Input
Amino acid sequence: LKSRGEQQEPPAWQERITDVADDHVCAVVDMAYFRPLIQGMFAANPDPMLGMFVPLWENTDLVVGGVRFEEEMSLNLNAWAADAEGAKKIEERLKSLVPFAQGMIESFSVSLERMPPEQQQMFRPAMDLGKAVLDSLKFQTEENVVTVTVEGDALGLTSIVKTMLPAVQDAREAARRTQSRNNLKMIGLAFHNYHDVHQHFPPAVLLGPDGETKVSWRVAILPYL
Output
């Protein structure tokens, strides 16, 4: 806590976000805060996939990124390390992950050929954009800062969103229907549990514990939900 009148130091990211503050999307990730959490997860479950990213979360203190959607999509990402050696490790690991990501896309491309035509139509534009993004990745390191830039076709991204949006909406609607059916089932079971205890279903209106306040059947079945 700061004493009254004492000026508090601004957070480190406040000055560093100014370069991307006017972008359409910008984000700040304080890796110094998340590092102990990730280290604990990795110690409890040393997943090889998570292990590939160890040099990133061990050496990165702060990440600031921004994305602009104009005639072309552009992404600018800056990662700060504690020193130049840490920044070099970050850049080396990022570069090594590019072929891995390209291999995953190629593997999925083979699987895509065996999918129904409507699924192929939905996922293929996303794969093409992913390939284009990986091909246009650029890395630059100066002292303790690693900069990653990407330029891509924003119109391609728009078409992907238009293609995938109906599928996402259908999935959400199906989830809502399933949740509603489950809620109705739970209410029905609560009615029967109430009946088992009181030998009758709850009335439309009943008096609360004080003998005066009127409550509905919804309150009566709460203990049985």
